[in-house]
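User: Please run a holo structure prediction.
Assistant: Happy to. Please share the sequence and the ligand.
User: Here you go; the ligand is pyridoxal-5'-phosphate.
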Amino acid sequence: MHFDIDKIRNYFPVLRLEIYNKPLVYLDNAASTQKPLQVLMAYEKIHNDYYGNIHRAAHYMADRATSDFEAVRKKAGNFINASSEKEIIFTKGTTESINLVASSFGEQFIRPGDEIIVTEMEHHSNIVPWQLLTIRKGAKIIKLPISDIGELQTGLIPELINAKTKLIAVTHVSNVLGTINPVKQIIETAHARGVPVFVDGAQAVQHLPVDVQDLDADFYAFSAHKMYGPNGVGVLYGKEKWLEQMPPYQGGGEMISEVTFEKTTFSEIPFKFEAGTPNITGVISFGAAIDLLTEIGLANIAEWENSLLLYATEMLKSIKGLNIYGESGKKSGVISFNIKEIHPYDLGMLLDKSGIALRSGHHCADPLMKYYNIPGTVRVSFGLYNTREEIDRLMAALARAVEMLK
Ligand code: PLP
């Protein structure tokens, strides 16, 4: 594999920062990633060269902004191998993508007594919108449980599905456990029983190649800010056959065909779901992040990050009293752990003072914390720019912190 880590790190000047007089070691990539020069430059260029509102005016600035914005829709579609860019809706993030489906698909297809299967390892973003929907509609959430090593008990799916089941919501990769779920197999099982599947791809698209046609996903959501793009931009992929049947999510400009006080007709998909002025500059600079990921190659990124995962897991396991949550054989670059008798917040705070940026807390996954009966974990999450040297720094800082806290 040719993976030029020095070249990659040079794209991210922020990685040269020192905090508290220590070199920054950024290991909170599951929360949000740093931004490369390509994205920063694209953002500046739009403002300097051709900023205007899109899809509206017939002048150079607006035309150029519109064509660049729409080019990113095509790019995002190709990135996950959607069959058409009509299936790509821009949102402000995964959370909004999920709320869009819960609201619109829910309005059209969920009736009192219906059931939605949601897994025990979901981020709150992939629980709460479904819960609000079930409350509104008199429907019910059914939990798909996990096992102790942090894998979904997929064998239970055929038993959980019945005539009332209208949707399965599942994360592709867990933001706490790192588990890569067998979504293709889950979708196959669900489709054989006529149930569509919503996949939360927030922790997947930046780490492994995703092909929504191969998965046969009905919906797939992700956030630009977790994949080296700007914040405030997300994608919802939806199969045309669903999007065509779903009512608009929000009303406003751009999503209409004709408005009278008596009646409004709506735009074609995807515009029907994009009311108002979108995040024009965000979407266009997101294109530069997709280009970078494509240029480096997701298979190469997966291999690099997996080598970091294996190295760090082995090192961490050598610490006495350290317990790792999530020990599936199929993991992405996330390690959650606790050390006996040390609170994760204390550890996180001390590590921060050593220049190590990582996350300690419940990671917006309370049901998972309840399953393990813990208040939270310390979480290390890798990005494509992390190195073994940084893991060594983490280990040295961890040893010092444990010494102080014991
Ligand atoms: N789903 C998962 C698995 C996540 O990890 C996150 C964020 O951490 C989200 C959804 C929510 O993403 P956003 O805050 O970008 O909407």
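The CA atoms of residues 244 and 405 lie 57 Å apart.
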